[in-house]
Design goal:
four-stranded mixed sheet, three-stranded antiparallel sheet, alpha+beta, 179 residues, 7 strands, 5 helices
């Protein structure tokens, strides 16, 4: 699919993410692109999982100035120069999914943000799977949290009221609060 995209355009470069490639398979992936005339930079998941990012480019159109792994298997920075001498800072990303540990997500986004901010003036492309939630998903999740918070406030107020009039009902509170 990546080769079809590149061969059918004048773009000359593409981001790869969620490579599903294990250590030792890197040469085969590079070879696959090379036999079609493309070069590649790969940064595989150090744990051998689904992560892994890369950059595939046509060396006749694009010159790689330098590259750097920002976060292994997740964020790869590649500075390129096009034939018309434009420099582009290209980030190939596979960001952690919302279900991962909060620390992992925060670290990845902080590293990407810092790397993008460190780019001197010029063109910056952030590409790949950002695993972003849609506005509707975030709103729906917040609505559930807000409803839960409002319900908890109501239950606490109810419990306080019942305690004040001498009729505590922890069973009622626990049944609603735990359910």
């Amino acid at each position: 699919a990546v080769l079809d995209l590149l061969q059918g355009s004048e773009i000359g470069m593409a981001a790869l993410n969620e490579l599903h490639t294990r250590a030792g398979e890197e040469a085969a992936v590079r070879g696959h692109f090379a036999c079609h005339g493309y070069a590649s930079i790969l940064d595989l998941d150090p744990e051998g999982g689904y992560a892994g990012v890369g950059f595939v480019y046509d060396p006749n159109l694009i010159k790689v100035v330098n590259s750097e792994t920002i976060l292994a298997g997740r964020i790869l920075r590649v500075r390129v120069q096009t034939n018309d001498l434009n420099e582009i800072e290209f980030f190939s990303c596979y960001m952690p999914q919302p279900g991962r540990e909060a620390e992992e997500i925060i670290k990845a986004w902080e590293l990407l943000t810092a790397a993008v901010k460190a780019v001197p003036i010029g063109i910056v492309l952030v590409c790949g799977d950002l695993n972003a939630e849609t506005r509707a998903a975030v709103h729906g999740r917040l609505r559930k949290v807000l409803h839960r918070q409002l319900a908890e406030k109501y239950l606490h107020a109810l419990e306080e009221h019942l305690t004040r009039i001498g009729k505590p009902s922890p069973t009622f509170y626990q049944a609603i609060g735990d359910g």
